[in-house]
Structures are given as structure tokens and as C-alpha cells.
């Protein structure tokens, strides 16, 4: 590790990799904010779905740029494995958000349930924090990275409580038929997975902070 660090210090830095990660984090917040319009006046589900899908395409383009740059670059500002993992997880946040919108449209969820609204709110807050914390890597502000990651972990636990309560209610409410249960669970699952990915990004960022701090 010491030799690798010396090589990085001596050779030109490829700081545009930070730009790719920052773009993906920003797109994650954009996707989550767009999805949170589901159920609000003036926004149809089809419009929300299409808008989130557009953001997902933007994220895919950034991931391709990141992967192409990794293939062409010898020296990266942080380990290429970490860059690859972070890029993949940040893209997953957008993918899971997009899948939640598509599932809602495919299963005909006309309006979000209260747990869906709560999870969408947590997802927005989580992705906004990610959009704030990822740029801290560029300036090596690792103590701040760790501090913000504690917020992300707290939000993941908050979402987990909402998700488990919602699933328990679904399976114990005799008034809910099988179709309604399936469509609600599908959307809840994807929202919960998107928030989980935010927590996985936090874990990866924390490991980087410890490694380089």
C-alpha cells in the first residue's frame, strides 16, 4: 500500500473520477426527488415513471464513462476496486428507485400508501446526504465523511422500521386481498432496497475514510 500511495503522489492525478461519483450521487437525489412526486397533485404516475427512467438513463451513461476511464487509466486517485464498487452502488440507488416507479406503474398502484410515502421521504433525505458526502472524498475531508455516514445509517434504520411494520400489517390484515398485497409489497421492497444501497455506499465511504484518513 505504501508503494502504491507513493506512485499516486508522483504521477498526475485523474481527479475526473471524483466527478463521475459526484454526478452519480446527484442523479440519485434527482431520481428520488422525482419519484417522491408520486401521488402529488399535478403528477401522474406515468409521468413520474418516465421522468425517473430518464434519470436512470443518465446514470447509466455516467457509469459507462467511469468504466471506460478505469480501463484507460493506470493511476487512479483511490483504488480502482473502490471506484468500481462506489460507482456500482450509486448506480444501484438510481436503478432501485427506477424499479420502484416501474413496479408501481406495472401493478397499477394508483396512489402511494402511507408507508410508501414515508420510505420515499427517507430515500430523498438519504440521497441528498449522499450528494453532500461524496464530494468530500475529493478534498479528503474524511472526518466529515464519517459524520455524515452516521446520518445515513440512522436513516436506514428508520426505513427498516417503517418497512417491517408495513409488511407485517400487509400480511396480518384480512381486508387486504392477494393482488393488493403483491402490488404494495413489490413497491415497498424496491424502496427499501434503494435505501439499503444508500447504506452500503455509506459503509464503502467509511472504509475509504479509515483507509485514507
List keywords for this structure.
0% strand; 213 residues; disordered N terminus; Methane Monooxygenase Hydroxylase, Chain G, domain 1; 7 helices; globular
Topology (SSEs and partners):
Layout: H1 2-10, H2 16-35, H3 45-72, H4 80-107, H5 114-133, H6 142-172, H7 178-212
What profile does the largest beta sheet have? none
| Helical stretch tally | 7
Structural class: mainly alpha
Any idea what the CATH architecture is? Up-down Bundle
Distance between the first and last residues' Cα: 14 Å
Please tell me the total number of domains.
Answer: 1
What is the total tally of β strands?
0
Structural notes for this entry:
By secondary structure, this protein is mostly helical. It has one domain: Methane Monooxygenase Hydroxylase, Chain G, domain 1, CATH 1.20.58.220. Helices cover 80% and strands 0% of the residues. It has helices spanning 2-10, 16-35, 45-72, 80-107, 114-133, 142-172, 178-212. Mean pLDDT is 90; it is low at 1-12.
